[in-house]
Specification:
Chain B: Belongs to the ABC transporter superfamily. Chain B: Its EC number is 7.6.2.9. Chain B: One of its GO terms (molecular function) is ABC-type quaternary ammonium compound transporting activity. Chain B: Pfam families: ABC_tran. The complex is a heterodimer of chains A (225) and B (394). Chain A has 225 residues and is mainly alpha-helical. Chain A has one domain (3-223): MetI-like fold. Chain A is 82% helix and 0% strand. Chain A contains ten helices and no strands. Chain A has helices at 3-9, 11-43, 47-62, 65-76, 80-104, 108-116, 121-154, 164-172, 179-207, 213-223. Chain A is elongated, with a radius of gyration of 21 Å. Chain B is an alpha/beta fold. Chain B has two domains: 11-249, P-loop containing nucleotide triphosphate hydrolases (Rossmann fold, 3-Layer(aba) Sandwich), CATH 3.40.50.300; 251-393, CBS-domain. Chain B has 15 helices and 17 strands. In chain B, the strands form four sheets. In chain B, strands 6-7-8-3-9-10 form a six-stranded mixed β-sheet, sandwiched between helices. Chain B has a four-stranded antiparallel β-sheet with strand order 2-1-4-5, with helices on one face. A four-stranded mixed β-sheet of chain B has the order 11-12-13-14. In chain B, helix 3 (103-113) crosses helix 4 (118-131), helix 3 (103-113) packs parallel to helix 6 (149-161) and helix 4 packs across helix 6. Chain B starts with 10 loop residues before the first strand and ends with a helix. The model of chain B has no long low-confidence stretch (mean pLDDT 89). The chains are: A mainly alpha (225), B alpha/beta (394). The A-B interface holds A 109-110, 112-120, 123, 127-128, 131-132, 210-211, 215, 219, 222-225 and B 59, 61, 82-87, 90, 92-94, 96-102, 104-105, 108-110, 112-113, 117-119, 121-122, 125, 143, 159-160, 169.
Chain lengths: 225, 394
């Protein structure tokens, strides 16, 4: 059986696993993005806290994913819970770091101008700082997504959902029937999915650029009613 | 909408002190400053003298350690800082426009904070763009980075004026501009101020900018106190101490020329006559005067022609159309510097000075200007002697 026959034969299962993988990654990155941006916003003004937040996330980052997943079994058992936890932890760092870097990179003159004309702290953050830091934050989310793709595949080690199942089952019976086909299917599936996600981010980046269509629309609505 | 603009209100700083944590000396020390409504007050001094800190305490971007700031009689402590700032225009160096917003959206920020409706905001934006000399149709939807530095700062001024605040704070607004744009924006600020009469606190380190713009100037010295607070002419003719003199640098006399108006000095008087005066009478007057010429005025007392003894000799009846046409006049509101320029370019040594309705008021020659400079200098010397005497005595 060649690769194509293998895929054709198990098309429904592969499609299901691909969708599962995509959904897992998307949800994990969403959680990581919310957490990362929140922690970033909470700490970026205090250099020590920001350094602590990014470095502690960095330490977690150095733990091999397989080891982290393994360490989670006693705590969270097998399946979705340890997979999702691990992916979120790994996805957190790039988003947190880019949020802090992005917010700190906003010209202090602009923050001063915003405060000086009577914007509250919160409004300054929402209207000036976050929109200006957004391209950098988006890059962080993009990196996190690529990371989550790979770790999501490894999550099959703790019986997590997704395309990792193909890879691990293939590797487990290497030399056996369809072992290489399964591994290849899983690997190529993850790669294709990663490219698709990335294309979405490019599009999102274009749409939300400072003079992109979405912002223009928002501006047009708010300035000339 | 032609709503009348809000005029300025007085500001009073009472023993205002700001000590930053970790700083050895306070950045501003027990500073008293009274700013009259509708005046431009310039805080000027070297970097680190506390001028920006002083300004930022007025809108509470920096909270004073002690002392009180009264805006229109109300203590700024009693007003929520965000609300306070919405009623104080704020212009900073390089304009500080939000790069992700259009020009219109930048200007609209304060009215939006104040909850104006969209239509009123849109109208106000166009009105302000016109006011600062930018065509609304061209600039409304442009993003700041497409604008030149000068245009950006015009938008910055429009943003500050958006909600028609009585007070404007300007922190080195023209510092980053090229000399030509800077001069143009200074001139336009003065033109705007003629109409708006806001209370403006202007921070700069450029003494020439201070002398040009300020109704009053506060010269500040490190750490955080005012050495002299006076009108520009007073500062030039009567600097409080050596520090102020050093800060003014050379060329005080030249600067005085640009601050003194023609109407402020003693003008020369030349013989003059009406067009219908008898030529023989005019000749008699000219000969009595001894200078050998007279100025002929029309019915509205406007200078028309110069006549000399040669023109008048042997003539009878009204002087009429004899003589050489007056080539130029100097308005009494011109500065001495401009007058000097015109004198140097004039065909005659003496140029008539005119006041209201172009009516004759006197005449100016190089000698008159020279005398004026000398008398200003003499006054300056005298004041210095008095001051030295006072210092020795005290």
């Amino acid at each position: 059986m060649n690769l194509w026959e293998y895929v054709e034969d198990r098309w429904d299962l592969i499609l299901f696993e691909t969708a599962q993988h995509a959904s897992m990654v998307a949800q994990c990155v969403l959680v990581a993005a919310v957490l990362g941006v929140l922690v970033g916003v909470a700490t970026y003004r205090r250099p020590r806290m920001a350094a602590f937040a990014t470095s502690s996330a960095g330490v977690l980052f150095t733990i091999p994913s397989l080891a982290l997943l393994g360490l989670m079994i006693p705590l969270l058992g097998l399946g979705v819970a340890p997979s999702v936890t691990a992916i979120v932890i790994y996805a957190l760092l790039p988003i947190l770091r880019n949020t802090v870097v992005g917010l700190r990179g906003v010209d202090p003159l602009l923050v001063d101008a915003a405060r000086g004309i009577g914007m509250s702290r919160r409004r300054t953050l929402a209207r000036i700082e976050l929109p200006l830091a957004w391209p950098v934050i988006l890059t962080g989310i993009r990196v996190s997504t690529q990371l989550a793709m790979g770790i999501g595949a490894v999550a099959a080690y703790v019986s997590g959902p997704g395309l990792g199942e193909q890879i691990f089952s293939g590797l487990a019976r290497l030399g056996g029937a369809n072992a290489v086909n399964a591994t290849l299917t899983g690997t190529i599936g993850v790669a294709v999915l990663a490219l698709l996600f990335d294309a979405c981010y490019v599009l999102l980046g274009r749409l939300t650029a400072p003079d992109g269509p979405l912002r223009r629309l928002a501006i047009a609505r708010s300035a000339h009613g | 909408m032609a709503e009348p603009s809000t005029h300025g209100v007085p500001i009073e700083l009472r023993k205002v002190t700001k000590a930053f944590p970790g700083g050895r000396a306070p950045a501003v020390r027990e500073l008293d400053l009274t700013i009259a409504a509708g005046e431009i007050v310039v805080l000027v001094g070297p970097s680190g003298c506390g001028k920006t800190t002083t300004m930022r305490m007025i809108n509470r971007l920096i909270e004073p350690t002690s002392g009180d700031i009264l805006i229109d009689g109300r203590s700024s402590r009693d007003i929520d800082p965000d609300l306070l700032r919405r009623h104080i225009g704020y212009v900073i160096q390089q304009a500080g426009l939000f790069p992700h917003m259009t020009v219109a959206s930048n200007i609209a920020q304060v009215p939006k904070l104040l909850g104006w409706d969209r239509r009123r905001i849109a109208e106000r934006v166009d009105e302000l763009l016109t006011l600062v000399g930018l065509e609304p149709a061209t600039f409304r939807d442009a993003f700041p980075r497409r604008l030149s530095g000068g245009q950006q700062q015009r938008v910055g001024v429009a943003r500050a004026l958006a909600a028609d605040p009585p007070v404007l704070l300007m922190d080195e607004p023209f510092g980053a501009l090229d000399p030509i744009s800077r001069q143009r924006l200074q001139d336009e600020l003065l033109r705007l101020q003629d109409d708006l009469s806001k209370t403006i606190v202007f921070v700069t380190h450029d003494i020439d900018e201070a002398l040009k713009l300020g109704d009053h100037i506060a010269i500040m010295q490190r750490p955080g106190h005012i050495v002299q607070y006076a009108r520009p002419a007073e500062i030039l003719t009567n600097p409080a101490d050596e520090y102020v003199e050093q800060f003014l640098g050379a060329g005080s006399s030249m600067r005085l020329l640009s601050l003194t108006k023609v109407g402020d000095i003693e003008l020369d008087q030349v013989p003059y006559a009406a067009e219908d005066a008898d030529a023989r009478d005019v000749l008699a007057t000219v000969e009595r005067d001894g200078r050998g010429y007279a100025l002929i005025l029309d019915g509205m007392r406007r200078p028309q022609r110069w006549v000399t003894t040669a023109h008048l000799k042997g003539r009878e009846g009204p002087v009429g159309m004899v003589g050489d046409e007056v080539s130029g006049v100097i308005g009494r509101r011109k500065t001495l510097q401009d007058a000097l320029e015109e004198l140097l370019n004039a065909d005659t040594d003496v140029v008539p000075v005119t006041g209201r309705h172009q009516a004759y008021e006197g005449a100016l020659s190089l000698a008159t200007v020279q005398n004026a400079i000398q008398s200003i200098k003499a006054r300056e010397r005298e004041r210095r002697m008095v001051r030295l005497g006072r210092e020795e005595g005290g």
